[in-house]
Amino acid sequence: MFRQEERVTISMMFLCGLGITGLASVAVVLYLHGPLRKLLVELCGNERRAEFWTAFSAVTVGVVPVIFSLASRPSMSADRPALLQVADQLESGLIGMVLSVLLLGWIIARFIPRVAPKA
Which residues, 6 or more positions from 10, have their beta carbon under 8 angstroms from its beta carbon? Predict the structure, then answer.
């Protein structure tokens, strides 16, 4: 079993990784919000539909990385430094973020009408 201070260290490492992942998620959501909303207004045809899909996209892109980060748990292994364990957790979160943004882009791209080249 872990001693009390080892449990605190593991918990702090885990929370640190979650916090960094959460901040990165918020940054990406804020960065994408404006352009995504403009595109969705155009594709959806009205503000209410676009607002829903913008919110849906923000929640998805914000939560998926945190879920991936939650799956990566640090351990008190003497051969693995704490910083590298937090980096592994952040890596999992960033993989989730990239996957969610790519999936969102792929779905939106399917609804953008293709314009035939002018002759």
Answer: 2, 74, 75, 76
In the 8-state DSSP scheme, what is residue 113?
A: P
Q: DSSP label at 71? A: T
Amino acid at 65: P
- The CA–CA distances, whole Å, from 52 to 40, 58, 71, 77 equal 10, 10, 29, 45
Report field, pTM of the whole predicted structure over 0.70? yes
pLDDT digits (tens, 9 = 90+) for 3-60: 666 666 788 888 999 999 999 999 999 999 999 999 999 999 899 999 999 999 999 9
Separation CA 50–CA 46 (nearest Å): 6
Residue 50: alpha-carbon gap to chain centroid: 21
Residues with Cβ within 8 Å of residue 25, at least 6 apart in sequence: 61, 62, 63, 65, 66, 93, 97
